[in-house]
Amino acid sequence: MEIKIINSKKMTKMYKLIFVAITISVLLACKNSPSATETQNDTGKADTVVVLNDTQFRNAGIQLIQPIKKIMHQTVTINGMVDVPPQSMISVSIPLGGYLKSTHLLPGTNVHKGEVIALMEDQSYVQLQEDYLVAKAKLGFLETDLQRQKELSEQDATSKKTYQQSLSDYNVQMAMLKGMEEKLRMININPAKLTIQNISRTVQLFSPITGYVTKVNVNIGRYVNPSDVLFELVNPDDIHAAMTVFEKDIELFQKGTAGKVSLISDSEKKYDVEVILVTKNVNDNRTGMLHCHFEKPNHSLLPGMFLTGVFDVTSHQAILVPENAVVHYNGAEYVFVQKEKNTFVATPVETGLSQNGYVEIKPNGYINWLSVQLAGGNAYALMGKLKNKMEN
Question: Is-contact 78 311, C-beta < 8 A?
């Protein structure tokens, strides 16, 4: 056998050439092969795309819709009741006790301001009138005596002490007379018209407002003390809606906020109201109170009736889409944006207020919602197809 000896320098050169060739092959392979990250991203993008053929598109019942821009009103629904401010709810009493002689009032009776609503009778009324006339007569005598004592004092015909006593007696009597005059006015007797000939054992009670009777607390012949309430009257032109609002919503309301209320027993009939006062405190139930004025008086609303109301608290420009264009999946919300014919991309969105079948889509900074079309009508069909695609 013949053995050939290869020069060592030639061998070294050959190894170098082989190493370079292998290195170049590896680099070319890495350049042409997608990285793990690129592969993952491509897969992620593909997982959000749904492609339908024409038949699938028709059968799915999908409609292409265009987002719109519109003013969105935030509303708050609250409950309350018909109420009357203190100045419009009157409790009728008589400052001097007496017996009720007559009245025609019943709950619900309409009354007019100045109308006689009751006759009261008592011997104390007679005594007061008598005392007043006697005091008035005595005052006349004291006035004449005072004038005489004054003239005598000026002439030094009498002592100053006598004049001062006359002046004191006159002032005391005048004070008594003025006090009796006010007591007479309190029981609706005009002191200027009172004479010996028209002393009466009865006095009249007059209605202080125009409105209607809500309560009758007495009956004929009953003795009434000054602290007793005979009747309660209401002025229906000044009723208001007292609405209860939760603590978290109080800041949404302010004077002038408009709303519509209705009786819980008759929700079809609406009444326009406007907030006139917002509570400044919160009670133990963590609620506050709104006082609302009715735009038009309505005498069919009675104090104590229960109300429910809807109030517009804020408004802003918003991008709106039909509610059926938004798909809820795994705690997130999506819309399907049309990329090309029958091709849709599931796009996560943040929604806002809902109103009249539309829902607000919050701006995301990279999609001009007014320039795209979305899948509507049956967008859940696309989500179902996307889920099947992901599972397979």
Answer: yes
Query: How far is it, in rounded angstroms, from Cα 207 to Cα 114?
Result: 5
Q: Which CATH architecture has domain 76-86+235-313?
A: Beta Barrel (2.40)
Phi and psi, residue 331, nearest 5°: 80, 0
Helix (H, G, I), strand (E, B) or coil at 65: strand
DSSP 234-277: E-GGG-EEEEEEEGGGGGG--TT-EEEEEETTEEEEEEEEEEEE
pLDDT in tens, 217-235: 999 999 999 999 999 999 9
Spatial separation of the C-alpha atoms in residues 113 and 110, rounded to whole Å: 10
Among 79, 87, 82, residue whose Cα is nearest residue 240: 82
Q: Is 215 helix (H, G, I), strand (E, B) or coil?
A: strand
CB neighbour list of residue 149: distance below 8 Å, 6 or more residues apart = 158, 162, 163, 166, 167
pTM of the model: 0.59
DSSP letter (8 states) at residue 98? E
pLDDT more than 70, % of the chain = 87
Given a contact cutoff of 8 angstroms between Cβ atoms, the answer to whether 125 and 203 are in contact is yes
Side chain identity at 257, as an amino acid letter? T
User: CATH number of the domain at 90-121+202-234, please?
Assistant: 2.40.50.100
Report d(CA 270, CA 264) in Å as an integer.
11
Give the pairing of strands 374-376 and 63-65.
antiparallel
Q: Partners of 91 in the beta sheet?
A: 232
CATH number, domain 50-73+317-391, options 1.10.10.60, 3.10.450.50, 2.40.420.20, 3.30.43.10: 2.40.420.20
pLDDT at 190 over 90: yes
Give the residue carrying structure tokens 């821009």: 69
Q: Which residues contact 370 (CB under 8 A, 6 or more apart)?
A: 66, 67, 68, 69, 319
Rounded to the nearest 5°, which phi and psi values hold at 276?
A: -110, -15
Cβ-in-10-Å burial (0-12, 13-18, 19+) of 26 comes to exposed
Helices (H), the chain: 8-32, 36-46, 54-60, 123-154, 160-186, 379-391
